[in-house]
């Protein structure tokens, strides 16, 4: 996992696999993936129940692409963990801000 990405997890190896899939999910309005945007807060795993819990946010509560982004995130996690239950929780606490963007993401955005 990129050390500039800060995601709470209980299993670093599985989190790296999850993030690898989530790197493919872009915020279409920004043109940057949701991992580098800092939209992923937590990814935890329940091995016994084969369950992935992902907590994420959007850049705003009123993001017009929110349904598409969350659906694509669920699909990416489903592809990475076939046979596992995916539980995605969308939260706005804490609210997203530009400080969550990775250095690579800032470079991509020209900031």
Sum this structure up briefly.
By secondary structure, the chain is α/β, with parallel strands linked by helices. It is 30% helix and 23% strand. It has a single domain, classed as GMP Synthetase, Chain A, domain 3 (2-Layer Sandwich).
Helix/strand structural class:
alpha/beta
**Integer-rounded radius of gyration:** 13 Å
CATH class: Alpha Beta
Helix content percent band = 25-40%
**Spans of 5+ residues with little confidence (pLDDT < 50)?**
none
Number of helices: 3
Q: Find the count of extended strands (DSSP E, 2+ residues).
A: 6
Mean pLDDT: 94
Tell me what the structure shows.
There is one protein chain. This protein has a single domain, classed as GMP Synthetase, Chain A, domain 3 (2-Layer Sandwich), CATH 3.30.300. The chain is 30% helix and 23% strand. A 4-stranded mixed sheet has the order 1-4-5-6, with helices on one face. A two-stranded antiparallel ribbon has the order 2-3. The chain is globular, with a radius of gyration of 13 Å. Helix 1 (12-22) packs across helix 2 (66-80). The chain is of the alpha/beta class and 111 residues long. The longest helix is centred in the middle third of the chain and has 15 residues, at 66-80. Strand 4 (40-46) and strand 5 (51-56) form a beta hairpin. The mean pLDDT is 94. It starts with 7 loop residues before the first strand and ends with a helix. The relative contact order is 0.22. It has helices spanning 12-22, 66-80, 103-109; strands spanning 8-9, 26-27, 32-33, 40-46, 51-56, 85-90.
